[in-house]
## 1
Amino acid sequence: MNSLEQAIALEVAEKCTIIRDKDGNPAPDAPSWTQEIDNPYLHGVYAPICEEVQADELEVVEGEVPADLYGAYLRNGPNAVYKPRFNYHAFDGDGMLHMINFKDGKASYRNRWIQTDAKVKEAEEDKAIWPGVMGPFDFSLPGFPIKDTSNTDVMYYNGHIMSLWYNAGIPYKLDMETLDTQGREDLNGGLKRALSAHSKVDLENGELVFFDYSDDYPYYTYGIADKDGNVIHEAGVALPGPRLPHDIGVTPNYVIVHDCPFFHDVDLLEKTSKRVMTFHRDVPTRFGVQPRYGKGDEVTWFECEPCYILHVTNCWEEGDWVIQVGCRSTNPMPKADPSEGELSHMLAYMRLEANLYVWKFNMKTGEVIEHDIDTLNSEFNRSNPLYMGYKTRYSFNQYIMTRKDDGVGTLAFGAMLKYDVENGDLERWDYGEGVFGSEAPYCPAKGATRHDPEDQGYLVTIVTDSNDWTSYCLVFDARDVAQGPVCKLKLPQRVPGGFHANWVRGEDLYGE
């Protein structure tokens, strides 16, 4: 770094409210251009890295790798390559996958960028081309008017990895062994437009339940593809206007559509080229319970207290009732801090406020029962995937840190949580001061089925320690989260903060 770059870095560091190490230093392995930008989501644990690396056997720091932990942990997240043209949003970085494979009591690691169409085009031009979530939307650009980064969700489907974008974009296929991008996933030509993050794979029959939304009537579509990637069902569900639903509920007989009063004004988007989200506190949240293979007009709507819901833990049926457990936010757009300037609304939105909640819908009487399970600030909630659509007792969440915790107020995970949704009991293990976690999917033990105990498995997460910029993989016994990790593995490089993670069973990978 030359003297001018050092001066710029010092000026930015003095202005930025960012996560630094114990000596006050930012992450040392980030691209140099990040030092020119005052944005906490480009610094500290969020700073992008520059390398794709591979480690065939990870160092075990504590404990040992469980012999029946069998499969692969995948985590997606933003990792920007080029200096952005406009204001950078936490959602904007190019998608990068991190994979940790577990087999025979050993673990390996590799990471790769997702080679989206937009990333490939920008590599050809050697610069950023697309604007990000904060706009301005440019409808003259190919594909989307903002950059489709495929940086949000990740899942295993039909023999390969599929990466997804939260904004309903192009799904990409990646090789399960190398993480190399194989191109677009078009469901054997059956995908008509886009596919949103948080589509679901049903492990019982291999089906993919997916959804899409847009600014055009009927505004929402869901579909089902079979285990071989063929679309076997699709239906449009009419909403009152454009919405940005983030998740979908699935049971053996139903899908649950989310119509939340947190949406944008299309006319304002056209006039300003900015998508301005507003939470309409006087409008109820609606959940539409739709027959899984039904027509879009067969949906039964239930009105609930106004809220926004990001992630569903699980849904199931009990007699005439359809149950949905998830995390809800009654304040999805907290008040912005004017002192944070142009980034204030983005920073406010990323200060996620949510808690574990249950909704119950009676399909005969139309009755709704809804209430808190707990009020602790938590999200990125997961359950045993073998139980998807069937009653589950446990929700495994991340504690969402607040300004009171870290003094920063960026989205950060501070603890692993295990909830008993029947009685609200909570187990907790804190990652430690200056240590920040990742989403932790439930990982069934080798050979497990839905008829085995629900928590007879593991939780896997990646943590980054801002005290020295090292990253580790932690493995928890799901039966006893409070005891802390049973295994700690050192990763070969820092892993930036990211979004969603998933587990791929070894039985699906290796056929054993």
## 2
Amino acid sequence: MTSGTIHDIGYRRYDGRRLGRSYVLRSLYVHNLRAAWGLGRPARAKVMPFLLAAIMLLPAAADVAVVAISREPELLWRYSAYATYLQAVIAIFLATQAPVLASRELRFHVVPLYFSRPVGHLDFALAKLAALTTAMFMLMAVPVTVLYAGGLINQVPDPGGHALRYLSALAGAALYAVVLSALALAVAACTPRRGFGVAAVISVYLLSSMFVLTVQGIAEARTNFAFAGWMGLLTPFNLVDAVQVRLLGAQKSAVAVPPAPLGGPVALLLCVAVVAVSIAVLYRRFRKGADL
């Protein structure tokens, strides 16, 4: 060939506005929050999260109806105890939805595609944690809000005290949401298979609860109540309940809580440690997945 032809096929440099890191984080957050509720996915993906949300809401609605009929405000459930009473439902929600957020990209080997764009490994992990935390907070805060609204409608005594207890319960729900979500995501990210992730998350919550309850029963039988309280910190639900009792002034819902004055600060530090370690696990897991 002695000659050639140059074809203009229309490639041009992008001269538009760069949206930056905040837009990337917001987009990842919204995408994962929708995925946690099955939005934008087939109908079967929506069944489990919305069914569990309905199950969470049903006892609150029923309790408000009982209070309205009986005119006995003392029958209203304690706001801070709602998550503990329904911890089985919360654990199932985490077990079914955490693998959707943590392991789906790993299973289909698409993590490198995310990082081919200016997305940081830490940003990727934090967006997933924020999304599942929001979904968990919605799951727990809506029934508590229904209880509070029902109490106001039925004219419970001391509305100011009820408002303070409601706000304290919302703070506890936020702490529950971030601690439980971080732990569930870290466990689910350890395997790319969703079925294994579901089993692993359920096992962590059930086995820890069974072990702690057994040890606490033995300790209380020997009248070692302080040791029974400290052992409660080994299960995530009791860990957050200890913070609610010792730092937020709630009544205890667990079998035992660690004694004051160290119980509350130690429990809060353990919550921070759980979240920090879980973020580190997620960061390492997604970084490893990006290198495959």
## 3
Amino acid sequence: MAATMSWGSCLCVHVVIFAWYVFTLSANCSLKSTERHPGAKTYGGRWKYLTFLNLVMQTVFFGLCVLIDIVHLLLPAKALRGRIPSLLVKLRDTIFTVLAFPVGTFVFSSFWSLYAYDRELVYPKFLDDIIPVWLNHALHTIIVPLLFVQMYIQNHKYGSRVRGILGLALFSALYLSWVLWVHHVAGIWVYPIMAKLSPMGLVLFFGAAALSMAPLYLLGEKFNRKIWGSAGPQKKKKK
């Protein structure tokens, strides 16, 4: 079972992770488009890529963690029993459990699974000349270790499984709708694999991708319980 860290220690960790994500986001947005990979110049820009959406979400999440740490360090104990700090912590836990962990681990697992099978389906070789190796790993690999760091240093209260999975399903449906809209308006597929699939293949692919999210939500819940025990946040010592 993990030991409870002080708010000051959590702040140090969160500042480092937040700075890393801000740096990564800046590096990603600084990439230049080419004729072979127009990227941000096509319809939807970078916002059509789940990897970029996840990067923005992780940056916002760890920025929120920094804010919460500062609030708990600056406010007196009496003020911490107020509504605003409690709402911030609840928001942090909701974002982490419903979106940050499952979407982050999905980006990692789906990317590297397709990459190992046939990289041309998700990350054509010519991208090596455009996207630095370190940035590729920052976008698709390092996200998972950082999520586990966060899970280890702070307990996150998991709410109703039904509501959590429904929230994740809503996010998945919105993103898939966005992908289809981009194809409808601009005639392009966000990822190369989609251009190679038949209509039925697309249905199966989208269905499998959406359904794989629920197990990742449950995986996060299992790991959180493994690290912090089954007692939940109510039985942990207050910081």
